[in-house]
Amino acid sequence: MIVTLYKTGKDGRILYYTVHDRQAGLTSPYALTLAWRTGNGRERERLHLFESLAEMDKMIKTTLAKRFKDGYRLLYSWSRDARWSDGAETAFGTGGRSAAPARRSGGSGLLARAEEAQRRLAIG
User: Fold this and answer.
1) CATH code at 12?
2) Beta partners for 30?
3) I need a surface site. Which of 3, 10, 46, 89 has the fewest CB within 10 A?
4) Domain housing 104
5) Which residue(s) pair with 18 in the sheet?
6) How far apart are CA 51 and CA 77, in angstroms?
7) How confident is residue 84, by pLDDT bands cut at 50, 70 and 90?
8) Sign of torsion over alpha carbons 89, 102, 65, 56
């Protein structure tokens, strides 16, 4: 999965923030990469390793909520499968039920929740 957010900085430059699970970790079954950059500048990233899918989904949820609150808007999202959807349902406290229909993610998992959180915060 990949989620890319953006916002315009105080100086007019575009800030990008990307969350993805494409990079694997050697010591843990789940890995999450947070990457950020300004304009066409050098990207910085931080790799987080997790022992459970629920832990990773919780971090995704809190990271996206914080970024939406900071003024970021959804630029792009994509998921190759729904392997983390059950953990996302648990992390969002919906007990396996979709709280809102998905718009771009094509499912009722984490990306749908991120988009719903963005709408609730009236950002975007």
Assistant:
1) 2.20.140.10
2) 50
3) 10
4) 2-120
5) 4, 35
6) 24
7) very low
8) positive
Confidence tier at 116 by pLDDT (50, 70, 90): low
Residue in the structure block whose two tokens are 């996302």:
88
Assess whether pLDDT exceeds 70 at residue 8.
yes
**DSSP H or E stretch at residue 7:** strand 2-8
Considering its fold, how many domains does the chain have in total? 1
Structure tokens at 96: 């396996």
Q: How far apart are CA 82 and CA 110, in angstroms?
A: 9
* Residue 82 backbone dihedrals phi, psi, to 5 degrees: -110, 30
| 3 state SS of 119 | helix
Annotate 46-86 with DSSP letters as a single string: EEEEESSHHHHHHHHHHHHHHHHHTT-EEEEEE-S--TTHH
| Mean pLDDT taken over the chain | 76
